[in-house]
Structure formats: structure tokens, C-alpha cells
TrEMBL record:
Residues of the N-acetyltransferase domain: 2-152
GO molecular function terms noted in the UniProt entry: acyltransferase activity, transferring groups other than amino-acyl groups
Protein name: GNAT family N-acetyltransferase
PANTHER family in the cross-refs: AMINOALKYLPHOSPHONATE N-ACETYLTRANSFERASE-RELATED, AMINOALKYLPHOSPHONATE N-ACETYLTRANSFERASE-RELATED-RELATED
Native source species: Silvania confinis
Keywords: Acyltransferase, Transferase
Length: 160
């Protein structure tokens, strides 16, 4: 049994998960292709941070959405501990993040991921994200993939 809840990006459990993610990505890509945003430096109202905990309350996954003023958001820092993969925790985490983003007026989510993160790419594809061109502040990078998902099929319904 796992639970998903909102938590501060400064919580030691989340800091540890993000450190593991950074270590993993740093082994795959050169520094210029790693976009390691420090979520603790963002204003709280622009950030959705969630953690997955197991029965013993150990943090086994995390993910965030950085909300933009234009109604879009960027998925960041999605990570599931390797010993807990294969249980659809990634799908559940993305759904929770998307639901919270939508409740805060976000109509579109974007993300950047690396070409060597095959499981992550499959997760995003299964969850409805589609390839797109680089978006600000990123530039095209042969080691990056950029993806997007509309949370509201008709933006007129969102009052936009």
C-alpha cells in the first residue's frame, strides 16, 4: 500500500530522492544537458510537490509541477526508487500531479526528459504526453526529449 501526498521540497526525504535522481542523471548526461532545478528556491504558490510513501512511511518516489502564469506548467523531478518500480507508481504520481495542477488552473503540462531514460519516456507516453519542440527556457538538445499534455481538451472550457 502506498500513499501520495503534498510535501515541501525541502523535506529531507524529498531531498534524498532528488539527490538519487541527480546522481542517476549525472551518470547519463553531461552537465550542460542536465537541467537540475532546485525546487526549494521557487515561490511556494508556483510549485506542486508530491511524495509517494510506502506502508512504513518511507519516501519511495516524488514529482513536482512548476506552475507558470500563462496556465501552463512544467513537470519536474519525477523519480521512483528503483526497488519500487513496476507497480504503476509513476502513473499514479503523474495522475495526482495532473489533478492538482488542473485544480490550480493549469491547462497544459510540459516536460523535458533525457533520451536515455527509456522507462520515463514510456511512462509519459502511456500517460498521454506527446513529443513537441523545445519550449522556453530550453533549447533543442540532441540528448533531450520535450513532451506536452493538454489537461483541458478545449481551452475555451477553461475560460481561456
Amino acid at each position: 500500500m502506498y500513499s501520495i501526498s503534498s510535501e515541501s521540497p525541502a523535506h529531507p526525504d524529498i531531498v534524498a530522492l532528488i539527490a538519487a535522481l541527480d546522481s542517476y542523471q549525472s551518470a547519463l548526461y553531461p552537465a550542460e544537458s542536465n537541467h537540475l532545478l532546485d525546487l526549494t528556491q521557487l515561490p511556494g504558490h508556483t510549485l506542486i510537490m508530491m511524495v509517494i510513501r510506502d506502508r512504513q512511511l518511507n519516501a519511495v518516489g516524488c514529482g513536482a509541477v512548476v506552475l507558470n502564469s500563462d496556465g501552463s506548467g512544467e513537470m519536474k523531478r519525477v523519480y521512483i526508487d528503483p526497488t519500487h518500480r513496476g507497480q504503476q507508481l509513476g502513473e499514479k504520481l503523474l495522475a495526482a500531479l495532473e489533478d492538482e495542477a488542473l485544480s490550480r488552473g493549469c491547462h497544459t503540462l510540459r516536460l523535458e526528459t533525457g533520451i536515455e531514460q527509456h522507462a520515463a519516456v514510456r511512462l509519459y507516453e502511456r500517460s498521454g504526453y506527446q513529443l513537441r519542440a523545445a519550449f522556453a527556457p530550453y533549447e533543442e538538445d540532441p540528448l533531450s526529449l520535450f513532451m506536452e499534455k493538454l489537461l483541458v481538451a478545449d481551452l475555451r472550457l477553461a475560460g481561456l
